[in-house]
Amino acid sequence: MSYGNLPGIFIGILGALIWSITYFKVGKKAQVYLPKNLSKGRRTILRTLVFALGLISWGFLSFSLGQPRKPLGLTENNIEVNDIFFVVDVSKSMLAEDFKPNRLEAAKSKITEFVKLRPRDRIGIIMFSEKAFTLLPLSTDLKLIEQIISEINVGFLGSGTNIGDAIALAVARGAQSLAENKVIILLTDGVSNVGSMTPIQAAQEAKEQKIKVYTIGMGGREDARIPVGRTLFGRKQYQTIPGGSIDTKTLQDIASITGAKYYLAQNDQALKDVLLEIEKLERTEIESSGRVIYKELYLKYLFIGVIGLLLAELSRRFVIKEAM
Fold first, then answer.
1. What would the 3-class secondary structure string for 215-252 be?
2. Which three-class secondary structure state does DSSP give residue 145?
3. Distance of CA 234 to the CA centre of its chain
4. CB of 107 closer than 8 Å to CB of 271
5. Residue 27: pLDDT above 50?
6. What SS3 class is residue 318?
7. Strand partners, 322
8. What is the tens place of the pLDDT at every residue in 187-221?
9. How many CB atoms within 10 Å of residue 159?
10. DSSP per residue over 168-216, as a string?
């Protein structure tokens, strides 16, 4: 037996106390009209019985106000969830303007749209170039996720492309997750050329942890250019980057090893379509905090109390004929 509203019992006790004071008219001289066929002794007995009935009724009312209930068991409360890490290349080539306004900003925009479609999923952000860095551990805070996505920028992680260590970092972050469906979405436009772990070795680690790695190659156009400064007159200067620099074979192998897919996105719409397809990933469930199921008992005690108190008050007026 437990109570859903323990203070309610004390409210009931206070009500019983006030009723008792009014019953005996403490501080007030009672005016009693004694019927001819009712002796003083008999009246005293009846009045005592009516008081006892009223007090017992108030006891039932007090008990009901405490909302007594009987626990029947614990129900599992499951929610659908995926753990998804975005691993985003922030090497200088991601500033190429074959996407609008450039590859990196387009990726950030489409990642934000993806996240909004999956508000229950836990999202993590890792960015990499020569080094890999966890910008956001797994989180469901949509506002925080959007803020962190806006902070993905080129500049402070070196000049190489370290795909292997970036994937390995995401795998390590997701290894302790409770979700059965763990996903890494890799967005890159380059070839891995630094790092302590190769992309294929990292993919093998992801496979052991049952983590799928979807790979997206961004760009690949021969006329793609990156800004390299401005002229004396303030106009942007550009440098053409080698077309087809995406390591398609490696990205395909990573996806294949982990049971995922490789995609090529050469413009904004293609990138959006790719992420929408990945959004259709199978959802899984994890157990969250359970909820106790109760059988509510207060109603029957409330009914008994109300009926008892009603009988007590009717007896005062029509049996004892006590002036109120």
1. EEEECCCCCCEEEEEECCCCCEEEEECCCCCCCHHHHH
2. helix
3. 48
4. yes
5. no
6. helix
7. 32
8. 999 899 999 999 999 999 999 999 999 999 998 67
9. 10
10. HHHHHHHTT-S-S-EEEEEEESS-----SS-HHHHHHHHHHTTEEEEEE
Side-chain-side CA neighbours of residue 189 (13 Å): 30
Contact 320, 35 (CB under 8 A): no
Cα–Cα separations (whole angstroms), residue 101 to 1, 39, 78, 107, 268: 64, 102, 41, 10, 10
Q: What's the whole-model pTM score?
A: 0.63
Burial bucket for residue 219 (CB in 10 Å: 0-12, 13-18, 19+): buried
Q: Give the side-chain half-sphere CA count within 13 A for 88.
A: 30
Q: What pLDDT score was predicted for residue 188?
A: 95
Measuring CA to CA, how many Å separate 89 from each of 200, 213, 216? 17, 15, 11
Largest CA distance in the chain: 120
259-281, pLDDT tens digit by residue? 999 999 988 898 999 998 888 75
CB 123 within 8 A of CB 152: no
Length of the chain: 324
Domains and CATH numbers, the chain: 2-72+293-318 (no CATH), 83-282 (3.40.50.410)
Which amino acid does the sequence have at 67? Q
Are the C-beta atoms of 200 and 249 separated by less than 8 Å? Answer: no
Residue pair 85/184 in contact (Cβ under 8 Å)? The answer is yes
Q: Which long-range contacts (CB under 8 A, 24 or more apart) does 200-204 make?
A: 200/164, 200/250, 200/253, 200/254, 200/257, 201/164, 201/168, 202/163, 202/164, 202/165, 202/166, 202/167, 202/168, 202/171, 202/254, 203/167, 203/253, 203/254, 203/257, 203/258, 204/257
Q: Which residues contact 39 (CB under 8 A, 6 or more apart)?
A: none
